[in-house]
User: Fold this.
Amino acid sequence: MHEFMPLLAAAEGGGARCLEFLIYTACRSGEARGALWSEIDLKNAVWRIPAQRMKAGREHRIPLSEPAITLLKSLPSFGGTEVVFPSTKGDPLSDMTLTATMRRMKVDATPHGFRATFATWAQERTTYPSDVRERALAHAVGNKTTDSYERGDQFDRRIKLMADWATFVHATPVGATNDVDLRSAA
Assistant:
């Protein structure tokens, strides 16, 4: 991650910016590619993905870290589309755009592998409870009974988690190496 992020930041194009956003938010490719400006609240640093765009069919709030906010503010505006990362036609980027970006960078991995990298980092390098990590990934936590009683999304705890993740992807920890191989995480 620590070697990849500067290379990604230097890469040009909407696919590279979308991939960067995907990494900061630990979201799925389709969620990032389909992001709309109306879903993003820069002032309150939150991205609300509506239920109809989520795999589980439930709204998902993602805390936006400072690097994610900075990235969004740096994007050019395109008239006639509300899509954050539009194709040349104003539609969301295709499902192959992020993979093609990685191939051009000669990275043998998939965009979805960054979610696995996030999960591995959170599990092995932090003390965040597993349910906080799983909610950050928009995964179901517990069983149907638990789900009917636990209606919160631990958003406040996830604000710190996502800030810590952004710090991790940008700074090599003292004495540590990048031991999460993107190829095996894919």
